[in-house]
Amino acid sequence: MERNLRKTMVGVVTSDKMDKTVVVTIKDRVKHPLYNKIVDKSVKYKAHDEKNECGVGDKVQIMECRPMSKDKNWRVVEIIEKAK
């Protein structure tokens, strides 16, 4: 039996103050349906970081997973780029 494909996203870590949890902001540029203007949209997700490796400003890939707490159901797959 195969697993379903899970959603993956790439974003930037905006907070690492919690233990084993980071806040990842995903930025997207979308066209407004009425005014046809490009608008910046951002969404924040809490992601599980088992080894506390991520820091603020790191570019990471997150993947959907089972709920780990009230509002944490993503996990960090890999750190694409470390912050300077």
UniProtKB/TrEMBL annotation:
GO BP terms in the entry: translation
Family of the protein in this entry: Belongs to the universal ribosomal protein uS17 family.
An MF annotation (GO) of this entry: rRNA binding
GO CC aspect terms: cytosolic small ribosomal subunit
Protein's name in the database: Small ribosomal subunit protein uS17
InterPro entries associated with the record: NA-bd_OB-fold (IPR012340), Ribosomal_uS17 (IPR000266), Ribosomal_uS17_bact/chlr (IPR019984)
Function as written in the Swiss-Prot or TrEMBL entry: One of the primary rRNA binding proteins, it binds specifically to the 5'-end of 16S ribosomal RNA.
HAMAP family membership: Ribosomal_uS17_B
Family annotation (SUPFAM superfamilies): Nucleic acid-binding proteins (SSF50249)
Record text on subunit structure and interactions: Part of the 30S ribosomal subunit.
Protein keywords: Ribonucleoprotein, Ribosomal protein, RNA-binding, rRNA-binding
